[in-house]
Amino acid sequence: MLSEATETVKDIEEKLPGKAPKPIYQTVQRSFIADPLPQSSKTIKLATNPEFAGDFAAAGGSGGETQENFEVSKVWIDPGCIVCNACEAIFPEVFEVTDDTCLIRPDAPLNDGLKIQEAAEACPVEVIKFNKAG
Question: Which residues, at least 6 apart from 60, have a Cβ–Cβ distance to it below 8 Å?
Fold first, then answer.
């Protein structure tokens, strides 16, 4: 088929009327990785946090009742952390976010189960797990 060709690309282009240059399209680069969260002292408002329980009760949310704090016997991170830094922002004494994962700090205080639960509920990929003591 190629050996039977009688014209070149240049010959065909010369025969085309109104030859215009092809437009250049700019493609937006997209990523599924979120931008890092800016450092701040903001607290995520969750119904389980006693500090904000009243805010949710007034709005008809299910967090009207204050939960009693509890101790945790074990806390761990399942594979899949996206290093969003939400857990460390909530409880930096327990969680340490690195470049590619989250770690539980050695000798982390496990006596504030509500804060650990808040961090677990704030985790967008639900990889923070814990066992209540007792």
Answer: none
CA 10 – CA 35 distance, rounded (Å)? 48
- Using an 8 Å Cβ cutoff, are 75 and 108 in contact? yes
Longest dimension (CA), the chain: 87
Is there a contact between 49 and 118 (Cβ–Cβ < 8 Å)?
Answer: yes
Determine the structural domain holding residue 96 and report its residue range.
32-132
Question: What CATH number should be reported for the domain holding residue 111?
Answer: 3.30.70.20
Examine residue 4 and state whether it is found in any structural domain, yes or no. no
pTM: 0.54
DSSP character for 18?
A: T
Place of tokens 């204050």: 66
Write down the residue that tokens 């677990």 correspond to: 120
Domain assignment present for 3: no
pLDDT in tens, 7-48: 888 888 788 877 677 778 777 776 666 666 667 666 666 676
